[in-house]
Design goal:
- The complex is a heterodimer of chains A (about 375) and B (about 290).
- By secondary structure, chain A is an alpha/beta fold.
- Chain A has 14 helices and 14 strands.
- Chain A has two domains: about 210 residues, Response regulator (Rossmann fold, 3-Layer(aba) Sandwich); about 150 residues, Response regulator (Rossmann fold), CATH 3.40.50.2300.
- Helices cover about 45% and strands about 20% of the residues of chain A.
- In chain A, a hairpin with a 2-residue loop joins strand 13 and strand 14.
- About 0% of the residues of chain A have low confidence.
- Chain B has about 290 residues and is mainly alpha-helical.
- Chain B has a single domain, classed as ABC transporter involved in vitamin B12 uptake, BtuC (Orthogonal Bundle).
- Chain B has 13 helices and two strands; from the N terminus they run αααααββαααααααα.
- In chain B, helix 1 runs parallel beside helix 6 and helix 3 crosses helix 9.
- The mean pLDDT of chain B is about 90.
- Classes of the chains: A alpha/beta (about 375), B mainly alpha (about 290).
Chain lengths: ~375, ~290
């Protein structure tokens, strides 16, 4: 009996070793802003990517993805250098970084070197207008826009004041919303602000005394959200709701600023506590918890999805024997799958037309999906303000 | 419009007082040693993170962190000075490069230790609003304003009345002559750096209570402080305070009367105009005449 068990274990070990020995290692490069002004998002991107690679490598034995990561320090020039280095080191594709101004030149370089570049952190329309055959992205400006527009319609808001950073992505979203909401008869006022601003009271006071809207929408980043809501808490403009774009409806914001986040609404793919329906999402949540001992967040989810999409395409191209002959871009383009972010497909310019987000509201430490109605997991507090 | 302008002026004065707190340290080292410490913003940031550390660990008022913040910024200030002191040639220029590099090291050290999350006080008391007729402010902003006034007065007194203060002025005026009078310029410069560290610690804690901090904030603070220092003119401590208030009010009025997107641009235009028409700054020439 003991001898038989020993033989079985030895056979299993031998088979495993043989399988590992046969597994083809595929080298992928990645640049992310692990330091600098975009480090917070970059760190989340890194975590999502690492979980995706681990889960993919564990899910099959034919291909092993190996990622080399370079910190681009939130600087476009460093990102370009990183792509060149990664490709010269043998990377067959690039998992892209964060920020349109960084992704733009980095993906240009990747395209020039004939390598596929996939990102989930750049929403500028310019990126998909270039006609690059090697560029793909998971998210886009239209997805964020649809999320907020839908909520404005459901709430029948008559006026919206948009406070937008002059950085590329927030301004793109703000201008898109200004145009589309105005067409729907909503009174929109746009207040652009320089990213260096820390005191938002003069802007909020203009909203209070001149605009008098139903909703305030913040197209900005975490530090701006805190400054704007704090100014609003001091001046108390007569609005019914405060909403914002990315990185707002995340548990971390409530944990760090509980007095500011109650009832605030932001774009989000998932409610909190995390409730994922699909198997892949569940594996991601468990894998993320095991690796980093925390719950998934929005940026990590984006990065996870883009990495899984690339890993699968790499495996398909390797199986077809086209990986080294330029077949990877075609395999990425053939992607048609569900994901924790919804269905993923790519159009002719590498954009994902299905990308759309729900709106989630901070309610006592939870994030409740409140719009669109068919996705909602709870009732919106409206009027609902942090004060 | 009157109500808007009143709030803008009030907000501008409060923000300007924090600019002054941040700028005083740079003004001191620039005035005393002709050295622009490009890592000063990171020192302020370091102090802000000390306030975060104390508040998050103990729940105490962030101002209780000033002694710890001073201990940390003091040590770093001394280290910065000792490195600058090793420069033998072209000290003004080489110290720029050196302090710029130190700033990068400090930013990344903060990033490693405290992560990239945005931080600010959670104290409800400090965030409470106070209104004066039609204008509003947080308690933390008013506290920072009065603290800034007190720090400026203390620094002014130190430079005028204390032995070390007079020695700093003597070294800044004529290093060789000061040495002939028995002043050790290295000790005096070290004292100036230490006092700049104290100023950075107070500024950092005040910043944490009324604004948001994150590791990448340092260079922006340094730039703002440098603008204020140049606007004021070298050697004028009350000038720094007035220039900072002027910058704060100009920025806030720009937001109110024009566009918030122009705020930084108008600050820079003001800076360039003063440089062009009054190269000694708004208060520098008058101080020298006095």
């Amino acid at each position: 009996m003991i001898r038989r068990s020993f033989l079985a274990v030895s056979l299993c070990a031998a088979l495993t070793l043989a399988a590992s020995a046969k597994a083809e290692e595929i080298q992928v490069g990645s640049h992310m802003p692990l330091t600098g002004s975009l480090a917070r998002s970059g760190q989340s991107f890194r975590e999502g990517m690492l979980v995706a690679v681990k889960l993919f490598n564990e899910s099959q034995s034919r291909h092993q993805i190996k990622v080399s990561l370079i910190d681009d320090e939130s600087q476009p020039a460093k990102a370009v250098g990183a792509v060149e280095k990664l490709v010269s080191d043998g990377a067959v594709a690039i998992l892209g970084g964060y920020g349109s101004n960084i992704v733009g030149p980095a993906s240009d370089t990747s395209n020039r070197l004939g390598k596929v570049y996939i990102t989930a952190g750049a929403v500028s329309e310019e990126l998909v207008r270039r006609g690059s055959k090697n560029f793909f992205r998971i998210n886009n400006n239209a997805g964020y826009q649809r999320g907020f527009e839908g909520m404005v319609e459901e709430l029948k808001a008559a006026g919206v004041s948009i406070i937008a950073s002059t950085r590329e992505a927030p301004m793109l979203l703000a201008k898109g919303l200004e145009e589309s909401l105005a067409k729907k008869g909503v009174k929109v006022t746009l207040h652009a602000f320089d990213p260096a601003i820390t005191d938002f009271k003069p802007i909020v006071n203009k909203i209070k005394l001149q605009d008098k809207p139903d909703l305030i929408f913040m197209s900005a980043y975490e530090n701006d959200y805190v400054g704007i809501i704090r100014a609003a808490k001091v001046l108390k403009p007569p609005v019914k709701l405060i909403a914002g774009a990315w990185s707002l409806a995340i548990p971390k914001m409530y944990q760090d600023f509980p007095d500011l986040m109650q009832n605030v609404v932001g774009t989000t793919p998932l409610p909190y506590p995390v409730d994922v329906k699909d198997e892949e999402g569940k594996r991601f949540v468990a894998g993320f918890k095991a690796m980093f001992n925390k719950d998934i967040d929005y940026a990590a989810t984006l990065s996870f999805v883009k990495t899984m999409v690339l890993c699968e395409a790499l495996a398909r191209a390797a199986d077809a024997g086209t990986l080294k002959s330029g077949g990877l871009a075609d395999e990425v383009r053939k992607t048609s799958r569900s994901s924790p972010l919804g269905p993923i497909v790519f159009d002719a310019v590498g954009d994902n037309p299905n990308f759309t987000l729900s709106m989630g509201q901070h309610q006592d430490g939870k994030i409740v999906l409140v719009s669109p109605a068919e996705q909602s997991t709870g009732k919106i507090a409206y009027p609902g303000l942090p004060w | 419009m009157l109500e808007l302008s009143q709030q803008a002026i009030f907000s501008g004065l409060l923000v300007g007082s924090v600019y002054a707190l941040v700028a005083l340290g740079i003004a001191l080292t620039f005035g005393a040693m002709k050295i622009i410490n490009l890592a000063h913003g990171e020192l302020v940031l370091l102090a802000a993170y000390m306030a975060y550390f104390i508040e998050s660990r103990t729940g105490w008022n962030p101002y209780a962190a000033i002694p710890l913040a001073f201990a940390v910024t003091g040590v770093v200030s001394v280290a910065v000075y000792l490195l600058i002191d090793r420069i033998r040639e072209h000290r003004e220029l080489n110290s720029l490069i050196l302090t710029f590099a130190i700033g990068i090291v400090l930013t990344n050290a903060i990033l490693l230790i405290f992560a990239s999350d945005v931080r600010s006080t959670g104290s409800p008391f400090l965030q409470d609003a106070i209104s004066f007729h039609t204008v509003y402010a947080m308690k933390s902003e008013l506290t920072a304003f009065f603290l800034s006034l007190a720090v400026m007065a203390a620094l002014w007194w130190w430079l005028k009345a204390s032995w070390y203060g007079r020695a700093v002025r003597a070294v800044s005026s004529n290093r060789d002559a000061a040495m002939l009078m028995g002043v050790d310029p290295r000790r005096v410069e070290l004292a100036a750096f230490l006092v700049a560290g104290v100023l950075a610690s107070v500024a950092g804690v005040a910043l944490f209570t009324m604004s948001v901090v994150q590791p990448a904030l340092g260079p922006a603070l340094t730039v703002k402080a440098f603008i204020v220092t140049v606007l004021a003119g070298v050697g004028s401590i009350p000038g720094v305070f007035c220039a900072a208030l002027l910058l704060g009010v100009t920025e806030a009025m720009t937001v109110t009367l024009a566009s918030s997107a122009l705020q930084e641009l108008v600050g820079m235009v003001l800076f360039l105009l003063v440089l062009f028409f009054m190269p000694n700054g708004l208060f520098g020439a008058r101080a020298r005449r006095g």
